[in-house]
Specification:
With 475 residues, this protein is mainly α. The protein is built from 18 helices and no strands. Helix content is 81%, strand content 0%. Helix 1 runs antiparallel to helix 4 and helix 5 runs antiparallel to helix 11. The longest helix is centred in the middle third of the chain and has 37 residues. It is globular, with a radius of gyration of 22 Å.
Length: 475
């Protein structure tokens, strides 16, 4: 089954809007809360962790709802994408407009409420969106290609906040732009407008193929209401734990979750590290983060080619080795930073970050494609389409791991005596920032490598089950 290029592009661009908003929060919220609003790291970490935990819990619920919902115009998924897009663009703006002069308690509540609301609407978009990609691309190779398009747009979305930082956070009166609230608000306006445009393009561009899929599967579609969803709440999460008993599901779900903890460390505390330990300007930090994600984009054709040549699992394991090499090289720049001029150090770090980004590129596409293969085999065996809920399980596990990591990071900022009122941190604080980032990233990637090694589905396995299914239908 071949999918039109226009459909692939329309589907992929949906990830640009969502990815930009999500990455803006991931990259800036910890620094914004501690260094701009002056809230303690523990409180900011708690607010972020609670919202991410709720995001994880709501993922399989929304997935279950989209599996059991259907509409002849919007199919199973597009109605949720419409709802999610509207809410994302609103609460993305409200999040960054917290009153600067309010008490810490009010700031904390404002952040918590906005983060919870934003995560709810992000889930309403993201989980059905992932399931939509699996619905419209059941072919083994087409799934890899579709995930490639989706990944490129998602990484573009991850690049944009760094570029916007350069545009909207210039230095003013000797103060670095990342310390001014106005820059974050302006970025929010831009990213919300982009999210709205990309959501509309994705929905319109995939509408025809969604309607075709609906016609093929409407006989097997059942409807459910909110009451039935929450009556099935415990059943959903019981199914999640049953799913983890299956080796291939467990390898992908846990491996993906653990691997992306490294992103939580880099994005949530990386701005602290580069500002206070490396003493880079907002423009230099913007270039570094842009380089990371541009490298990930440029790596996509390579990892797709390699996965087609040696299969997905070996390609993914090779990518993790590249990431580890990049982490080691970057940590060496941290150790020797006192002996290298800042301008020279910047270019050395940029080179090392480029290596990290090249390896990280595979993490945004290959695990999702491998997970799609597992779901496809399961669907062919059982005859049931539970794509949405299984997609929710993937993001549920990732968000649980992420929320724990963010909570630990927030607490560790307080434990190392990070003081947001001090423009220059003590050497012990600077060193501790480096240890947290590099050790956290290295441990998560190493553990992910061990977990992914347990995955045992190959291309031949998927083709075998599809052939059996085809022969069964022809009989």
């Amino acid at each position: 089954m071949k999918i039109k290029l226009s459909t692939k592009l329309s589907y992929g661009i949906g990830n640009l809007g969502y990815g930009t908003i999500a990455q803006t929060v991931n990259s800036f919220i910890m620094f914004f809360g501690t260094s701009v609003l002056g809230i303690s790291g523990t409180l900011v970490g708690l607010a972020v962790a609670i919202s991410v935990f709720w995001d994880g819990v709501s993922d399989p619920i929304i997935g279950y709802m989209s599996d059991n919902h259907s509409n002849k115009y919007f199919g199973k998924r597009l109605g949720f994408l419409i709802f999610g897009t509207m809410g994302m663009v609103l609460f993305n703006i409200l999040l960054w407009t917290v009153p600067f002069d309010a008490t810490d308690g009010i700031k904390f509540v404002w952040l918590l409420v906005c983060l919870l609301s934003l995560e709810t609407f992000c889930t309403s978009f993201a989980t059905p969106y992932i399931a939509l990609g699996i619905d419209i691309a059941p072919d083994y190779n087409e799934q890899s290609k579709l995930q490639g398009y989706k990944t490129v747009f998602f990484i573009l979305g991850m690049v944009l906040p760094s570029l916007l930082m350069m545009i909207f956070m210039p230095s003013s009166n000797g103060l670095q732009g990342q310390f001014l609230q106005s820059g974050y608000v302006n970025i929010a306006y831009f990213t919300s407008a982009l999210g709205l445009i990309c959501g509309v393009v994705c929905i319109i561009g995939t509408l025809k193929i969604v309607q075709d899929v609906y016609k093929d599967n409407k006989k097997t579609t059942s409807k459910t209401g909110i009451k039935n969803v929450f009556n099935s709440f415990f059943k959903i999460f019981y199914t999640f734990f049953l799913t983890l008993k299956k080796p291939n599901y467990r390898a992908i779900i846990l491996g993906y979750s653990v691997a992306l903890i490294s992103t939580a460390f880099l994005c949530s505390i990386g701005l602290h590290l580069f500002t206070y330990a490396y003493h880079f300007s907002s423009t230099q930090i913007s270039i570094l983060m842009t380089g990371l994600f541009v490298s990930a984009i440029l790596s996509q054709p390579f990892w797709i080619y390699l996965s087609n040549r040696i299969d997905k699992k070996p390609a993914l394991k090779n990518s993790l080795i590249v990431v580890l090499v990049g982490i080691v090289l970057t940590s060496l720049t941290f150790v020797f930073r006192p002996f290298i001029p800042t301008d020279t150090l910047f270019f050395v770090v940029l080179s090392c970050i480029f290596v990290c980004g090249f390896g990280t590129g595979a993490l945004y596409s290959l695990p999702i494609s491998m997970y799609a293969d597992v779901i496809t085999i399961d669907r062919l065996k059982s005859g049931e389409n539970n794509t949405g809920i299984y997609s929710g399980f993937m993001t549920f596990a990732y968000n649980i791991a992420n929320c724990l990591a963010l909570l630990v990071i927030g607490i560790m900022l307080d434990l190392i005596n990070f003081n947001s009122s001090e423009p220059v941190q003590a050497i012990s604080v600077q060193n501790s920032l480096g240890v947290i980032v590099f050790l956290g990233c290295a441990l998560s990637i190493s553990l992910a490598y061990a977990i992914f090694s347990k995955y045992n589905i190959k291309r031949a396995d998927v083709l075998k089950y599809k052939l059996k299914h085809k022969n069964k239908n022809s009989d």
